[in-house]
Amino acid sequence: MMKTDLPALPSPGSKALRNSKLEKYCRLRAALQPRAQAYLEAGWNDRSDASAYSHACRLERRTGVRDRIAYLSRQAEEMIAVKRERIEAQLWAIADGNIADFFETHEVVQRDHTGQPMTEPKCNEITGEMETALSLEKRVRPKLLTDLPPDLAKLIEEVRVDNHGRLIPKLYSKERANKELRNMLNLNAKSDAADVTKLSDQELLQTLAQQARELGIEIDLNYSFAQPKKTDE
Q1: Other Cβ atoms closer than 10 A to 233
Q2: Distance CA 10, CA 12 (A)
Q3: What is the 3-state secondary structure (H, E, C) of 95-107?
Q4: Cβ neighbours of residue 112 closer than 8 Å, sequence gap 6 or more
Q5: Measured at the alpha carbon of residue 31, what is the angle toward residues 29 and 33, in degrees to the nearest 5?
Q6: Residue 158 has pLDDT above 60, yes or no
Q7: What pTM does this model have?
Q8: Contacts of 192 (CB under 8 A, 6+ apart)
Q9: How many angstroms separate the CA atoms of 166 and 124, rounded?
Q10: DSSP assignment, residue 111?
Q11: DSSP bridge pairs for 214
Q12: 221-228: long-range contacts at Cβ-Cβ below 8 A with a sequence spacing of 24 or more?
């Protein structure tokens, strides 16, 4: 039986150029270096920037060089998108983090002021008879760091030791994460539209008059706002 699945052809420009100078030039250009600067930094000498620019333009007319720059540029854009997505996901995880996920409840024996265990009457579920049992109370303690799943462990900025020798996690700042998210998603952009509810009567009339002039409309704004009437007592 003949095989119909042929190996995929490599993308144009996916292989590094054999000439080390050309390869370095392509990488510099993919990193948005200007032509003349990339040409000189790659290792070629020239009399002037204008001459270096001319030689660089000639280099980029080569199919192999042009394909290599295009390929590296696409890779850089994809890497930036992946990194941005990872950073945004981490910021959302910090913003949505719940400190309760890092603690657990456990029972301890209650003790009196002398340190002796306290007891309390308890009904035996099997015999139905009353018995004396240790008095227990629920307390909260931090979970062992080694027991935390990776998605929770990466939300911890630092660990502090309390008076009992327990490791208390301190999470990354929610406030800082929210601020970074707002900047990343451009949620801090202010609207240019004026809030007319905050304008005084005079400012509102001036705004209406200005809009009318811009639209080429003649309107008569020679009126005053009515004042509340006083009633006779």
Answers
A1: 3
A2: 6
A3: HCCCHHHHEEEEE
A4: 118
A5: 55
A6: yes
A7: 0.50
A8: none
A9: 36
A10: B
A11: none
A12: 225/201
